Amino acid sequence: MARVHSIEIADLEGTPQSLKEYLSGSLGRVGGLSAAPYASFAEKLAETIQTTSAAPDLSGAPQDSSRTEVRCEVVELCAGHGGPSTKIRPLLRDLGVDTQWLLSDLRPPPTPHRAMLEEEAGVTYVPEPVDATAVPDLDAYFEDGGATGGRLRLITNAFHHFQPEVARAVLADAIASGYRVAILEVQARHPLHLFAILFSPLTAILLSPTIKPWRWSRLFWVLSLIGPLVVLFDGIMSCLRVYAPKELDALTEGLDGTWESGRLPMKGPGFVTYLIGTPP
Fold first, then answer.
1. 275 within 8 A of 260, measured Cβ to Cβ
2. Would you call 156 helix, strand, or coil by DSSP?
3. Can you tell me the distance from the alpha carbon of 244 to that of 263, in angstroms, rounded to the nearest whole number?
């Protein structure tokens, strides 16, 4: 199935802000329900961080990189209302990678939601817009303490929003800035993933009361069924826009650094698509 870069209603300038907040909140809530979709990716990412961060051993004895404990500074781009970060961060910690986590987005969520995320997930949300193709210096947000695991830019379930030329610019900017970069997509252009999306309107309705902070406008979008139907439409469009591993490889062709892409099994049906780049 060829990639189709079609529209998503959440991306349109004319979409009401209250509907955008409902859609982003729904995605964040679903993304934070379970750690299962992210477990295999977290293992791959932790292995990469530990392997490329390990101090050289001059004794000649074999090293077990899986036991290397490191600290990594993470800048999550296109973070929206969070969600996946609340699951990926603890997984990395259990695998020996401590993190200081910074969330950012071109359109940051309202202050109440940023404050809630910071309190509940132990992260920091950059209040200013952050362009993923030209990320500003964010050193002021990190504590001095020696990031033995280096720095990482992470995009979870959002890389498909970029056209190829923009996607390549995002990757190039990360490597040029000395960051590792990791891309994760839980959705895919696959019948199993498209079938699962069919249940998203019901999920969106059931989870609506649990999305924080509460907005009374949400009642209109849910009761009118406009919100759940847009969740369905955008979910299908997202699946059709996701880059396959070979397409990710094409995006990195000629870029500096070391790149690895592929698919990893979920704990359950389906798979995740990933791309990890390490600067030279």
1. yes
2. strand
3. 9
- CA distances, 252 to each of 172, 174, 180, 247 (Å): 8, 12, 13, 9
Over the range 204-241, which residues count as b (16 or more CB within 10 Å of their CB) and which as e?
bbeebeebeeebeebeebbeeeebbebbbbbbbbbbbb
Amino acid residing at 45? L
CA distance to 191, 238, 266, per residue, from 1 (Å): 10, 14, 21
How far apart CA 194 and CA 40 sit, in angstroms, is 21
| Chain centre distance of CA 248 | 16
User: What tokens does 189 get?
Assistant: 């252009």
What is the per-residue pLDDT across 81-98, written as a single tens digit (0 to 9) for each? 888 888 999 999 999 999
For residue 94 the two structure tokens come to 């259990």
Instruction: Give phi and psi for 68, each to the nearest 5.
Output: -75, 125
Secondary structure element (H or E) that encloses residue 231, with its range: helix 226-241
Mean pLDDT over 211-218 rounds to 84
Query: What would you measure as the largest C-alpha separation in the chain, in angstroms?
Result: 68
Q: SS3 of 150, please? A: coil
Cα 209 to Cα 22: distance, rounded to the nearest angstrom: 11
Q: Regarding predicted confidence, which is higher, 113 or 279?
A: 279
Query: Which residue is associated with the tokens 């979920």?
Result: 266
Indicate the pTM of the whole model. Answer: 0.89
